[in-house]
Design goal:
The chain has about 325 residues and is mostly helical. It is built from 14 helices and 4 strands. Strands 1-4 form a two-stranded antiparallel sheet. A two-stranded antiparallel sheet has the order 2-3. Strand 2 and strand 3 form a beta hairpin. Helix 3 packs parallel to helix 8, helix 3 crosses helix 12 and helix 3 runs antiparallel to helix 13. The protein is globular and about 55 Å long. The two termini are about 30 Å apart.
Length: about 325
C-alpha cells in the first residue's frame, strides 16, 4: 500500500518563497533574479531572523516577548558606549552580549517567579528598556574602519553577506536545541500542558527563565548585526521591530497558543520577508506598503491558527463522544 504524500507547512512556505522571487523577477524586469540581489536581500532581515529563533521558543511555550526590539537597542548602545570609552571592539562585544543576558534574564525571572501574563510582563519591560535607551541620550554612528562594521558588513567572495552566515549559524544552534535535545522537547510540551511538564519532574519555570534569557542573548547578537548593517543606532531604532519579529514567527507556522511550530518555519519566513522588502524597494514602493502587508500577514496567520485550534478541539470532542458511545455499546 502506497503511503499518502503529506504536504508540510514548511514546503508550502518554500513554494511561496519561490513564487515571490519569480513574481518580483517579472515586476522588476529580471533585476531581482540576479544572484547578488537575491542573496543580498537577506542582509535587510538577518538580524530579525536571529531574534526570531529565540522568539520561536518563547511562543512555543505560549509566551511572548514584546521587549526584544528595545533589548536590541539597549545592547547596541551599551556596545557603542563601551567601544567609545575603551577603544576595544572585543571589550565592546563582550559588554553587548553581557547586557543582552541581563536584559533577557530580567524577563525570565519575572516570567518564572510570577503568574503574570507574558504580554503584561514584556510590555512593561519594553517601556523600561525604551527609557534606558533614552538615558543614553545620544545617537551613535560608525564609519568604515570600525571592526564591528567591517566584519558584519563584509561579503564573502564579494557575494555572500556575513549577516547571512551569522543567521544560518544561529539557526543551526537553535535547530539542534529544539529538535535534538530534551530542552527542545519540553519547550514544546510546556506549550501543550505546563502542568504535565511539572508533574513529570521538570521545572517548567526554570526552563522559561532560560528561554527568555536566550531572547536577550539573541537580541544582543542582533544589535551587533544591526550596527554592521546600518552603521548607527538611536532611540528610534527599535520602533515596531518587535512586531516584525513576532510576524516572522507566526508566519513561520508557530501557533501563539503554544506547542506547535519550529525554528525552520521561522527561518523560511525570514527569507520571505527579506524578499518582500527588497522586491518592494526595487519597485520604488514606500515602507508603508511593507508595513501594511506585514500587518495583513500577521492578522491572517492569527486567524488561520485560531481556525486550526477550533477545528482541533472539534475533532477531539468528536473522538471523545465516539469513544463514549463505543463504551456504552460494549
Amino acid at each position: 500500500m502506497r503511503k499518502k504524500f503529506k504536504v508540510s507547512y514548511e514546503l508550502v512556505m518554500v513554494l511561496i518563497l519561490v513564487a515571490m522571487c519569480l513574481l518580483f523577477g517579472v515586476l522588476t524586469d529580471g533585476l531581482f533574479l540576479k544572484p547578488k540581489t537575491m542573496i543580498g536581500c537577506t542582509s535587510d532581515v538577518a538580524y530579525l531572523g536571529v531574534q526570531a529563533m529565540s522568539m520561536t521558543l518563547i511562543i512555543l511555550t505560549a509566551g511572548i516577548d514584546l521587549s526584544v526590539s528595545y533589548q536590541m537597542v539597549c545592547s547596541a548602545m551599551v556596545c557603542a558606549t563601551v567601544y567609545n570609552m575603551s577603544g576595544s571592539a572585543l571589550v565592546a562585544i563582550i559588554a553587548c552580549i553581557a547586557s543582552g543576558f541581563v536584559f533577557g534574564a530580567m524577563n525570565g525571572i519575572i516570567a518564572a517567579k510570577t503568574p503574570i501574563n507574558p504580554w503584561l510582563i514584556t510590555m512593561s519591560t519594553m517601556y523600561i528598556f525604551q527609557a534606558i535607551s533614552w538615558f543614553f541620550g545620544s545617537s551613535y554612528a560608525f564609519s568604515a574602519g570600525n571592526p564591528i562594521v567591517d566584519v558584519l558588513n563584509m561579503k564573502i567572495g564579494g557575494v555572500v553577506p556575513t549577516q547571512l552566515i551569522v543567521l544560518l549559524v544561529v539557526y543551526a544552534v537553535f535547530w539542534v536545541l529544539e529538535k535534538k535535545t530534551t530542552f527542545g522537547r519540553y519547550t514544546h510540551a510546556i506549550g501543550h500542558n505546563e502542568n504535565a511538564v511539572n508533574f513529570s519532574g521538570i521545572n517548567a519555570n526554570r526552563m522559561k527563565f532560560w528561554i527568555y534569557t536566550l531572547g536577550g542573548l539573541t537580541s544582543a547578537i542582533a544589535a551587533l548585526m544591526y550596527m554592521g548593517r546600518s552603521w548607527q543606532v538611536n532611540q528610534e531604532t527599535g520602533f515596531n521591530m518587535n512586531i516584525e519579529v513576532i510576524a516572522l514567527v507566526v508566519l513561520g507556522g508557530t501557533s501563539t497558543a503554544g506547542g506547535v511550530g519550529g525554528v525552520t518555519g521561522s527561518l523560511i519566513a525570514c527569507l520571505i520577508i527579506g524578499v518582500l522588502k527588497k522586491g518592494l524597494a526595487l519597485m520604488g514602493l514606500p515602507g508603508t506598503v511593507y508595513n501594511f502587508i506585514v500587518g495583513l500577514v500577521l492578522i491572517g496567520s492569527l486567524i488561520f491558527f485560531a481556525y486550526l485550534q477550533k477545528r482541533k478541539k472539534m475533532v477531539s470532542r468528536k473522538m471523545a463522544i465516539e469513544n463514549m458511545d463505543e463504551q456504552k455499546v460494549a
